[in-house]
Amino acid sequence: MKERSQKYKGKYTPEHPAKYMGDSSNIVYRSMWERRCMKYFDVNPSVLQWASEEISIPYYDSMTKKVRKYFPDFLIKVKTANGEDKTHLIEVKPSKDLRPPVGGRGKKKSTVLYEMKAYRMNRDKFASARKWCDERGIIFDVWTEKHLKQKG
């Protein structure tokens, strides 16, 4: 399922390319929120390494009954305040995409159907990502605009 529009897309050039796990000359963001995360990971000294869409996780798409690939937004390795190294797999989504959609007056049926499919697909992806992370000792997080405001 493709996004309806990608109004804010571009390439990110890191200030600290050695921190990037992958090809630092080809880092693509698909939203302003992803770009903000990239900047945060790049310049934050507690972030030791980071990657954007560099790994794929198989997931079962319950709508099509097929196994597909999910490319999470970010994988980061951080040094915690107590000196521990932790790895996080992070997906960036608007908070509205994490709640079941609600139809209503004035809302087109096609919009509600699109939102229902997107919600279900995210649920399938996140379930597989949590399992994948649990098997590897990685923390799975979904960041919303609220998380990004806290990060600055």
UniProtKB/TrEMBL annotation:
Family matches, as Pfam families: Tn7_TnsA-like_N
Domain TnsA endonuclease N-terminal: 44-145
Signal peptide: none
MF-aspect GO terms: endonuclease activity; exonuclease activity
HAMAP family: NUCL_HEAD_T4 (MF_04160)
Protein's name according to its UniProt entry: TnsA endonuclease N-terminal domain-containing protein
Lineage: unclassified sequences, metagenomes, ecological metagenomes
